[in-house]
Amino acid sequence: MHKSLNRACLSTGLLGVVMLWPVQGMAEFFIDLGGEFTNNDNLSRAELDLDTREDTFLAFTANGGYFYQPGDFTSFSLLGKFEANRFDTFDGLDSLTMGIGGRINHKFGVGDDVPSLDFSVNADRATFDNDVRDAWIYTASATLSRRLGERVLGGIGLSYETRDGDHDLIAVDDPVGPGPGPSPGPSPGPGPSPGPSPGPGPGPSPGPAPMPAPGDSFSTDSAQLFAFVDVDLTASSWLSLGYQYADGEVTSTATPTEYIVAASTAITNDRVFGSGMFAYRLDAKTHRYNLDWNFAVRETGTFLIGVERQNIEAVGNIDYDVTLFRAGLLFSF
What we know:
single chain
């Protein structure tokens, strides 16, 4: 039920942006095109080295929309999004994402050092070659930012994301957990008859508990608190530093162990990373740190080189780290 409520709230936010859309003022269309190459050293988000999978992928993004500014302090945007990801080794993670979004930005006065408030909502549909990961993704965020001097821009914000996986898939039939016990050994030799057969037993065995639908492991909710600082180095280059704290659910893929099964809230076979690997949904707290070095390219482009570090602390003392190195190019028109 909470998934439906989240979806309704975010859809209402998108509708609100449309209803508030002004009919007069300065307006323009915009297009952003970008490509990014990323290496991820723990794509499976696993705790043990034997379950860790590393890969590189290329992402292409195309965003376009309509910008409207009716006055000096407030602007509105509607946008559409397209993103394609192609992985080098684990091609089951190749994906296409399309979505729509809305944004409202308000500046609290005149001058470069006046704070501004930004609110955005988005609804995306992500499809993967490994379709157990297919999902609707809804996000909402609010960001307060201001210049802290001639060379420094800082900001803080809150965001929420809900990922609603497809639940109408056929459940996997791969067993999770210990198999049958040891053989009772050879049958006993001849001997006296054991006597009459006992009466009716308690009835048929109830069998194993039904497994969740595969989409459950990839249905997650998470709330984030974040902060960032952009520092101008020269007229055409700057550093971006960021931190994000997330409290919610994550999906980790690993070989089955008793403590992971006990800690998880959903389990499904994850064939992307090979047989015997399962995807687990876990409650966790995540710390993300990023550092990007940006360079202006001509008048409308940006080239970046960056690194991101993630520290995940899940229930059951399941902790793991992820490091990403990336390089990308973005042009705005």
